[in-house]
Write a structure and sequence with these properties.
Layout lengths: L2 H26 L6 H42 L5 H7 L9 H12 L6 H8 L8 E2 L2 H14 L7 E5 L3 E7 L33 E7 L1 E3 L4 E3 L1 H5 L5 H23 L17 E4 L8 H10 L2 H4 L3 E4 L1 H8 L19 E2 L2 E5 L14 E4 L4 E14 L7 E13 L5 E5 L3
Parallel strand pairs: 2-12, 7-14, 8-10
Antiparallel strand pairs: 1-12, 3-4, 5-13, 6-13, 8-11, 9-10, 11-14, 12-13
Length: about 425
């Protein structure tokens, strides 16, 4: 049994146990949970939601590792000399190159303390920010942690670029029968021998321009002693801290970003995503969920996911089908799906309340494109933080919906 399989099974058990506890309280009070018990219920829901998020993230990481293993297998079949083979087979767990050692020396003493060959190991990909590429094994660790802290990135389409923006081609959606056909291209059936054709100007194509924005938090201030301590895994801690902050900042922007100096979030998509009424003035209702689910075209629904906060999920746990007494989510069942589509949890999603807010996204996340320009760089700041050292991480990322028809958003309204 693989590491990922063991972790996923353990997390599924944790999620089931916490949801069962929440459902038990709900069943005890026949759905009308008293206020003094709600904190306890929300705590169980939060733990279950976190476990479900980790399951999805582990599955994404397992998939990426399987792809990497396949690539490495192909690489080892290419006839190369021993030195090239050793370089290609270098892994994060067993770094053999000069880069990691030089990166540690760069963090501790700066670029001026390195010789020409050592500087070359760091400055090959130097850019205008004044920062330096981090070694491959550090980037792998950072990206692994980044995926672990995010909801949108593992589901979206991610592309790399060396330009300040990417132009993404799109096809104009049909003005009629939009839930069946996703483009304006029309077809026809002909009788045998038919030869009279009329040219059409469809499909109509367009372009979506996705700009790349600078993510640059305040510098991390560390002591010189910590940088020079050989027993401290400072690089591992640094990768984890940067990945956590970048991951949470990304999710906040990919969901709520206004596109000004940051990615354009799904809830603010300028191209206009269709909203579906919840059926209640301050909550979700069964009819609204059904409308949200069925209004998404079938070709997108089969790959769609639900995105909501833990609080909204808690309301779904208490939601009944009309006055039948039957719960939408069956008590004591494996959490994390609704009508066989995965539920993802992000606390950056609004909660249900009066005010026409947008608590649920349902859509095919492959139609949200994330653009990464180059990668993470680190700038070492000395004078301002002396006698300590400031480390300034910089990354360039953009994001935008490229096909609004692939999404639906619930709006709190009767």
């Amino acid at each position: 049994m693989s590491y990922f399989t063991e972790q996923i099974k353990a997390l599924m058990k944790t999620a089931e146990e916490n949801q069962s506890k929440a459902c038990a309280i709900r069943d005890e009070f026949k759905g009308a949970v008293p206020a003094e018990k709600m904190d306890e219920v929300q705590g169980y829901i939060k733990f279950a939601a976190e476990a479900c998020n980790q399951i999805t993230q582990l599955k994404a990481m397992e998939s990426e590792m399987e792809k990497s293993s396949s690539v490495m297998e192909q690489m080892t079949k290419v006839p190369v000399n021993k030195q090239q083979t050793a370089a290609m087979l270098e892994t994060p767990e067993k770094p053999t190159g000069i880069t990691r050692e030089m990166f540690s020396r760069f963090l501790a003493g700066g670029i001026d303390g390195l010789g020409p060959t050592e500087q070359h190991a760091l400055t090959t990909a130097k850019d205008e920010s004044g920062g330096f590429w981090v070694p491959e094994d550090f980037r792998v660790e950072y990206l692994k942690d980044l995926v672990g802290y995010t909801v949108i990135r593992p589901l979206a389409r991610v592309i790399n670029t060396s330009k300040p923006f990417v132009v993404f081609p799109t096809v104009q959606s049909a003005s009629t029968n939009g839930n069946i056909y996703t483009s304006t291209y029309s077809g026809a059936w002909r009788g045998e021998g038919y030869s009279s054709y009329t040219a059409q100007s469809n499909p109509k194509t367009g372009k979506v321009r996705i700009p790349v924005h600078i993510w640059q938090p305040d510098p991390i201030e560390v002591t010189q002693e910590m940088l020079e301590d050989p027993d401290a895994d400072f690089q591992g801690m640094l990768a984890d801290v940067i990945a956590e902050t970048k991951g949470l900042d990304e999710d906040a922007a990919f969901i709520n970003g206004d596109g000004v100096g940051k990615p354009l979030g799904i809830l603010n998509a300028a191209s206009g995503i269709t909203t579906v009424k919840s059926g209640a003035a301050a909550n979700v209702a069964y009819s609204g969920l059904v409308d949200l689910f069925t209004s998404l075209p079938a070709q997108y629904r089969q790959n769609a996911v639900w995105i909501m906060s833990s609080t909204t999920y808690g309301q779904l746990l208490q939601l009944q089908v009309g006055s039948t007494g039957t719960y939408v989510i069956t008590p004591n069942t494996t959490p994390g799906t609704l009508w066989n589509r995965p539920i993802m949890f992000s606390e950056f999603m609004p909660s249900c309340q009066t005010g026409s807010n947008l608590p649920i996204i349902f859509g095919d996340m492959r139609q949200y494109v994330i653009v990464d320009r180059k990668g993470l760089t680190l700038q070492r700041l000395v004078e301002k933080y002396a006698p300590n050292v400031g480390l300034l991480p910089v990354a360039r990322t953009g994001g935008q919906v490229v096909r609004p028809a692939a999404f639906r958003i619930q709006i709190v309204s009767t």
